[in-house]
Structure formats: C-alpha cells, structure tokens
Amino acid sequence: MPYYSDDLIEEVRSANDIVDVVSDYVRLQKKGNTYLGLCPFHNEKTPSFSVSRNKQIYHCFGCGAGGNVITFLMQYDNDTFQEALETLAQRAGIELPKQEVSARAKQEADKRAQILEINKASAKYFYVQLRREQGKKGMDYFVKRGLTQDILKKFGLGYSNKYSDDLYQYLRKQGYEDNLLKDSGVVAFDEKRGGYDKFWNRVMFPIMDVNNRVIGFGGRVMGDGEPKYLNSPETMVFDKSRSLYGLNLAKSSRKTYILLCEGYMDVIALHQAGFDNAVASLGTAFTPGHANLLKRYTKEVYCTFDSDGAGIKAALRAIPILKEAGITAKIVKMAPYKDPDEFIKAEGAEAYEKRIAQAQNSFMFEIEVLEKDYDLKDPESKTAFHNAVARKILEFEEELERENYIEAVAERYHIGFENLRKLVMHQGTRIGIAREARTLKSGIQEKRKKEDGIKQSQKLMLTWLIEEPSLFEQIESYLGPEDFTDGLYRQAAEMLFSQYRAGKLNPAGIISMFADEEQQREIAGLFHARLKEITTPAEKEKALRETMIRLKENSISYRSRHLEPTDLEGLQKLVADKKNMQKFYRMEWGR
C-alpha cells in the first residue's frame, strides 16, 4: 500500500469539513454546537449520532461508532484507509503523490486488471456471437421474451456458442495464459479436456460493478440442459455477496427507492418498462453485503420477488437484513402473476406502478405470512396466533413503535387494541423485552458494558479540555497525562496536552494517529462525552473540582500499587503529589 506522510494525511483530512462530508450521507440537524442525525451504522428511530464541526469528529451514543472524516468513509463505504483518503483528496482537489508499491501488491493489482480485461474481452465476444448466425437461437429467445434491440445493447447481452472451447481458443489467441484464464472464471480445466469454456450454448448476461466494469457473467441454457442458470465462480474481482445485477444503471435513477428482484430477466424487463431503479442478487440469498451496498444509494427498498413459496421465503430473509442496515423495506405483490416480467407483459407498466403504490409494510407482510400457519377459525389456534404476533411486536425496541404496530395489527385482525396491548405486555414480562445485542457493521456493538466511574471521569475531563481549552491553565499545575491511568486514555491525554503546548488542539488529528478501527472509535468516544448542563460558575467549579479529585486520587492509588521498590524518582513524585493534593483540598481553587 502506498505510504503517505502524516502531514499529507492531515492536509487531506483538514480540507474536508466533517459536517459537509457526513451531510452527503446522513441528514443532520444543528443542535447547539453539534449536529445530530440518525446513525447510519445501526437501526434507530431517535437521533444519537453526533457530529462536531469544532472537533471534526463524530460519535454515536447508541452503538459507539466514532472517528474522523476518514474513518467515517471507511466505516460507511467499507473502504480501505487508502480508498477513503483518495476519495477525500479528490473531493478537496488535492493530488496525492504516486508511491512505489510492493512487488506483491503490484502483482495483485496487475492480475486484477488482467482479469477485468479478460472479462471485458469475453463480454464483447459474447455480444458479437449473439448477432451472428450461430447466435440466432439466443436472439430468438430474447425476441420471444419481448426485449428490444436497445435494451439488449444497454445490458450488453450476448450468446456463448454451442461448441465448448470457442471462447477459450479466442482468448488464447489474444495472448492470455492458461493460469490467468483459470483464475478469471470464464474458463475451466481438466486433465482430459484441457481448457474449455465455463459457458456454452447459453444466452449471456454480463455482470458489472458500480463502475461499469465487467466482473462476472450469468448464463441461461438454451434447451433442457442443467443447470438452467449458471453464474461465474467467485474470483478476485467478483464477490456474489457484494454484487447486485443492474446496480451500475440503477444508481443513476432519479427515483428515491430501489426495486429488488430475484432474476436477470426481471431487472431487464423492469428497465425496459421504464423502471430504471431495479436490481437483483446473483443466484445467491440476499446478504448484509448487498444491504450495505444498497445503503449507499437509497434508504428505501421495494422487494418485488416471485409470488411462489420460494419468493416469499426470499422476502422473509431479506426483510431483517434490510432493517438491520437501516433500510425501510416494502413488499410489492405480483399475484396472480409469477414475477415482475410476467406481470408487466400481462398488465403493463402503469398497472405495475399501482402495485408499487400499494406496496405492503414489511412487518404486516410478515404477519400475513405467519397467519398461514394457523387456523383462525379454531379458538386454540387463533390464541396461539395472537401470542405469536405479540412476540413478533416485541422485536421493536421503542415503545412508540410497538404501540403503532399494536394499533395496526389490532385493526387488521379485529383484535381489541387494549387486549393486544395487554398480551404484548404479558409476553414482554415472560420473555423479557431486552434482547441480546446484535453485532453491527464494523463490529460495533449496540449494547455495551457500562463503564466504570473512573473511566467516565477521565473521558469527561478529556472532552471538557477540548470544549474549553482555557481549562488547561487551571488544571495543569495539578493534573497531567500521567493521571489518566487507562492505556488508551493515557495516550490520548499525552497527545492532547502536547497539542495544547504547541498551541493548536486537533482531536481529529489524534484519531488519525491510530491505525486500529476499534481504537479510533474509542478515541472519538473519549472526546465526545456527554457534559451535564451547568448553569452557574459555582456549579462548574464544583463539577470540575470533583472530577479532578477523582482522577488524582485514582492516579495516586494506581501508582502506589504499581510502584517498583527501587523506583526512588517515582516515590518522590508520589509524595509530592500527595502534598499537592492536601493544598488542593484546602484552597478555594479557581477563584
């Protein structure tokens, strides 16, 4: 990885105001000296995500996410440090110097570039074959499915010949070696046959990343062969769990939501009908990687899956994953038709638009599916259904949201509101409303152990010093970095005191000094403690004095316990600090 100096990193960071950058991703509202919004790293209804223009850092009081503008992009976009720095440098118009990379890194980058070249050459080859005589079978299939020449071109659709080594021979003539072709995923090898095409006698769907680079392929067999649909294997450029078909086009849609489908043809049919915001997962179940990818472009997803049992199961799997990513999910019903492609052929785009407008709330969809497991004409089964619904409602963490869904379910199933509410409360008492903490993006935990008092005091003091630098003059005779006894707190204090003595406090710069994401998050938390509202100078003096006493007494106790018998200098410092504390207790400090 290229090496960039600390000065250059700081130049890029300071050229990108954190409020301006975060505002591109999160809706922020000014409140006092900070900006608040809904945290993009965990699902919440009440804003706990705080961004400080003064400190140039962010911190979520709900899940603990925190850092500076660089770490924000790393967490939000799953970028590497280098990728985040390059994005911010480009945003600020700063040119990063080209650095020498290691031989291994260069080899990896060259290989990725060559595989992308092979994919591009393969896509062109398939595209041409579809339009030649040997591709007539494929063209007839697409025409029969109602696709226009414009849409064929837009998606780069093609055909793989019925001979199983056509593409292999073509790529060999282009100069690509067998070992590289094997890693590309378009060619396979065995001892008897040697090299042969992964795809043959199939209509071909190039899969592109958001930068319009071909990263893989899907192919549908012509005839009765198996498997019906075949995707490229995963390669160093193709990760199925983080790739969505059609997103390269859908990301530019003016619509504020995205339509999530199951198959290639659904996406293509929707785009042809004017719904240019359709995407699909690639022959795999919907994953958190897909959700995080979608989150970059939308906050609302309409699931438009097949109407059969498999489609219903796919929707039930996708809903909690979308919710976990902070995306609102709705369900577009296709019945009596099988899928969006069939629906549009039968009813047209206008009717499909109406189905979108009538899309069902995802929770009510889950309840509707749950209902099918019970016989509501049987009193015992009906009671069991009501209890299952009550447990389901308890999944909502906020009381207001639970109340809203109690009202909606009670109205839908003709249950008295108070009856259902009591049942929810009863179930909550039995199983406990609190649930296990979920593992969130970047390993952030929504529920964390309560900090001990001394750590809270150390954090409070660090935040106070940043908020009011004039306090340094009042405390430095009594308190120093050595009085912050936790390892990370000590490092942060040393850097902060050093910055003060140099004449410039820069908490966001301190975060950049730590390479570990967990440490960056914790440092941001140290500088973002919640300060109690203090209305008078006397209250402020009292609070500051009490905090200092706690820190100093803890520091003296800690050093006493860890003092080496031969450490005379340490002993002398302890004695001096104890005498100093006696003076501190007696004096009317701060006046």
Textual characterization of the structure:
- The structure is a single chain.
- By secondary structure, the chain is of the alpha+beta class.
- It has 5 domains: 6-92, Zinc finger, CHC2-typedomain (DNA Primase, Chain A); 104-238, DNA primase, catalytic core, N-terminal domain (DNA primase DNAg catalytic core, N-terminal domain, Alpha-Beta Complex), CATH 3.90.980; 247-366, Dna Topoisomerase Vi A Subunit, Chain: A, domain 2 (3-Layer(aba) Sandwich), CATH 3.40.1360.10; 373-431, no CATH class; 453-586, DNAb Helicase, Chain A (Orthogonal Bundle).
- It has 26 helices and 16 strands.
- The strands form 4 sheets. A 5-stranded antiparallel beta sheet has the order 1-2-3-4-5. A 5-stranded mixed beta sheet has the order 13-12-14-15-16, sandwiched between helices. It has a 4-stranded antiparallel beta sheet with strand order 6-9-10-11, with helices on both faces.
- The chain starts with 5 loop residues before the first helix and ends in a 5-residue tail after the last helix.
Task: Briefly characterize the structure.
By secondary structure, this protein is of the alpha+beta class.
DSSP strand (E) fraction? Answer: 5-15%
- The tally of helices reads 26
| Biggest beta-sheet profile | 5 strands, antiparallel
State the helical fraction.
40-55%
CATH superfamily of the largest domain: DNA primase, catalytic core, N-terminal domain
SS class: alpha+beta
Distance between the termini: 54 Å
CATH class category of the largest domain: Alpha Beta
Q: Give the domain tally.
A: 5
Q: Determine the mean pLDDT.
A: 85
Give the uncertain stretches in residue-range form.
Answer: 433-451
